[in-house]
Amino acid sequence: MSDPDNYPVPTRLDHLPSFLLTQSAMRVHRVVFDRLDAAGARGHHYRMLSALDEFGPSSQVELGRRCGLDRSDVVACIDALADRMYVRRASDPKDRRRNIVSLTRKGRDRLAELERVLTAVQDEAFAPLDADEREQLVAMLTKIIDHHVHLTSERRP
Residue 16 is part of which domain span? Predict the structure, then answer.
């Protein structure tokens, strides 16, 4: 294996799953970023629209947690989506300090567009894998994530 500048990687790194996973993630992330950028979007836009579509209207805090975004990124993302009328922000009638964000019809249409982009990206990024191998990869990655989520939850007081 070699890096983008064609420098050989030390052999001992080539056998570490953690290194290979990181290298794969960087390359796939670059492809995803480039394709979403060409579509005028960011990954967090897709995550937020998906969360609103699946879970319904949510507070900004809930959206941030569901999407794995920092508070400051949540506000910027909602601002960008609201400017394009993909989401609507309103005061929570139960607590005026909170905002409730909901998906608009235009936002649902945008989500469908981004789904098409990301489906094509999956095919491009994982072209060397057949359908069974992709399913196995998803299962293995999910298993690793679940393991670390469990470890993290055990450490919390």
Answer: 11-125
What distances in angstroms separate CA 23 from CA 6, 48, 54, 69, 135, one per listed residue?
14, 26, 31, 22, 20
4 within domain boundaries = no
- Scored b (16 or more CB within 10 A) or e, 127-149 reads eeeeeeeeeeeeeeeeeeeeeee
Looking at the DSSP bridge assignments, the partners of residue 120 are none
| pTM listed for this prediction | 0.83
Distance CA 4, CA 106 (A): 39
Q: Residues for the chain: how many in total?
A: 157
pLDDT of residue 92: 84
Are residue 26 and residue 57 in the same domain, yes or no?
yes
Angle subtended at Cα 99 by Cα 94 and Cα 104, rounded to the nearest 5 degrees: 115
Asked if residue 5 is part of any domain, the answer here is no
